Amino acid sequence: MDPATALRRIAFILERQNAATPRVKAFRRAAEMVDALVPADLVALHAAGHLTTLEGIGESTARVIADALDGRQPEYLAKVEAEAMPFALSPQGAALLASLRGDLHVHSDWSDGGSPIEEMAHTARDLGHDYMALTDHSPRLTVANGLSQERLCRQLELVEKLNRDLAPFRILTGIEVDINEDGSLDQHPDVLARLDVVVASVHSKLRMDKDAMTRRMVMAVANPRMDILGHCTGRMRAGARKDRPESEFDAEIVFAACARFDKAVEINCRPERNDPPRRLITLALEFECRFSIDSDAHAPGQMAWLEYGCERGRPLGVTVGMVVNTLPAPGLLAWTASHEADQ
Length: 343
What we know:
By secondary structure, this protein is an alpha/beta fold. 45% of the residues lie in helices and 10% in strands. It has helices spanning 3-16, 21-36, 39-48, 59-69, 75-83, 91-99, 117-126, 149-166, 189-192, 210-222, 251-260, 278-286, 306-313, 329-341; strands at residues 102-106, 131-134, 170-178, 197-201, 228-229, 264-268, 290-294.
């Protein structure tokens, strides 16, 4: 294992465990520094005991580099591997996970993610995915550096270039667009029409009146440029916002609209969200809704969280045929394109 690979592997495990961001970034920055050096120079610095003179290399990351250069498994890597909490995936959950062809809700450093698009795509590919939908935030969510129309168009150009290099793996163009209070979507319709996948989520006024929230969500679901209803209750069960309760809305009406307009209900895999709750997944099943099992990853290691959603959905009756991201890319894109064609 080369030093950069070891450093990135540590970061991946820490991200999967939802470790503190500064700790994770230390290892990713160190990997970038190693990549920027001529290998012979790195070896010379190690031989002289001067690894920590490099910018961004501290004692812990220097020891990882030294162990890798000396042909040993880095001790720090062995430690985090041993400490990583195993996740008990049932045979049914494992079968559903194996059927997923991609992840339809992923963020990059273009909005509030921590890694470049290319690194997120490489991770998705290494996890065995055929595709990944890049869904950075829309402009209204300024706290998350949401993409203006101009920035999103520039991102589309970059994705086109990356796809030429990554083929046959494919980055699907997309967005996590805010659902405004009136149910409209927070991006120009012509730009949304250019995207492969549109996830629509409520991020503001989460405590609004139940009837108003129901109308807001149904208006979004009925929009022909929307494909997936993201983390529908908005609840948070861990972290700084762990006491945030579910938004109130008439789930029967919202899920009936999802079924009517053939939109997917997202099973969001972030451990602090676990959204929707199991009772709402069961209700969505009664309305014969489609589902999308998504990581909502903001860092490469978080893309491994798909197993959480599979394990929550499968015992309740969510099967492979109900989940849109079990489709190969052409089938998935035919489904998203049908929403505009049906209007």
